[in-house]
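User: I'm putting together notes for a lab meeting next week and I want to include a structural view of one of the chains we've been expressing. I don't have a solved structure, so I'd like a prediction I can at least talk through. The sequence is below, exactly as it appears in our construct file.
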Amino acid sequence: MGMPSTANNEEFIASLKRKEEEELVRYLAQKRGLPYLDLTRAAIEVDALYLVPQEKAREAGIAVIKQVGKHLTVAALNPDIKETEEALEDLKKQKFSLEIFLVSPQSLAAAWERYKEGGVSTPIEQGVITLGESPQATASFTDDLAKLAHAANIRQVSRIFELLLLWALHEEASDLHIEPEEKSAKIRLRLDGILYDMAFIPSAVFKLLLSRIKLISELKLNIHERAQEGRFTVRTQKNDIEVRTSVVPGVYGESIALRILHPRTIALGLHDLGMHPLISAAMEEEIKKPNGMILTTGPTGSGKTTTLYAFLKYVRSPKIKIITIEDPVEYHLEGITQTQVDTAKNYHFANGLVALLRQDPDVIMVGEIRDLETAQTALHAALTGHLVFSTLHTNNAPATIPRLIDLGVKPNIIAPAINVAMAQRLVRRLCETCKIQKNAALEESALIEEILNAMPIPYRPKTPDQNFVIFEPNEKLSCSACGGRGWKGRIGVFEVFRIDDAIENLILQQPSEAMIRAQAIKQGMLTLRQDGILKVIQGITSLEELKRVAG
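Assistant: Thanks for the context. Below is the predicted structure for the 551-residue chain, given as structure tokens.
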């Protein structure tokens, strides 16, 4: 029989040392009246581990290895040292009951290694992720993602997450969706308001990615049956970008939606929104007034928040106080006091607005009017010397008046309080590099001519009769400027009317939407379709895109 190898000897000695260490900890546990546990033989719930971040767990010498409701099983080296006591106390403050097991250093190290299964191999800063430079070619993203997602070592999930964020930023996406299906998870990006399928990842990788996103967004990893919301910051070489996280349960697991709040959105000024020069000039006059309300309407995703922020920036001055109540605060504006709805603390639009009025503001922005109480308080603020900006969910500008009446607001309050009602939509811009020029077909020319003839005279362009040149997207060409989609960015279309004496008298009669619309058109209101058709014949957007958005 040959002599044992050096490697075998070393393994044998290590095994003896480990056994001695476990026996010593077992003895100490018995002496202190604590249960003992060998974590190399125990089941560990990875989700439970993340109740204490990895860095904090290492500092405290603990690991949460199991959760049943509000009861936690915790492994600890020494429950009596200061760092451990503080970590355990933090868990108790979260209303958890604790069962403490004494473990050896080697045993605990094995538990800490399990953090890697949640996609975090190194300690991270909560709520912050730092990215490098974005690759330039879209093809590289799909290739790199495929390599990472199908690698044998699925612990590269941190890199996968970074790659997805880089991809979204490179494509200038407003939203990143990760949606589990039966056998995989689908990656989608919302580009210029439209969702595009981009890639698929294996379900096993998705589960790890979900843990990673929950961790960075400071969400609870162990909750899977109800919706959660959070946010984190993406640090790039150029700026910091806020990302809002939404996680909701579904048939095949939790679906993830990441809203990317790019700073360039609030860089837009009043003259960057796409308003016709005549409308822009009228809005300048209105937002310079010391009091009254300006209401902006439109569906979700129509750019209302961007417009309101442009108004706030236009009136911003060291000589006045501007304060907002939003749900949530999407972008932070310098020189403006912003507050956020918090239903858990009973701070919502109605009572929050009352509190804001005690702050002696000159200008108030109310994120949305949803109920009678908020509407009445906002309108009274407009009547008592404040300039108020807010939004309302209606399909068009004339519908704002009947909507407020339906909420229960008295017409004699609406009429003198509101200065302007405005509706808006966002249409996609044609890519300037690859758009296709064509002569409008007879049917298209007839439609354009019909809309132009109904347009208020000051807005009508000088164009040859029935000789319209329009543009279409070139979606078949591989264009580096737009990624082959034919579109690049979005622009607003607007309809705006002022509350003049005629409309004010009409409001007192509790009018229908049709009556308000007729008077607004008589006043000279440019409708959404009319504003859109001007952008069609200017080559900014297509006729089909206008039909899709504005009908």
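A couple of points you could mention at the meeting. The first helix runs from residue 6 to 32. DSSP finds 19 helices and 19 strands in the chain.

User: Perfect, that's what I needed.
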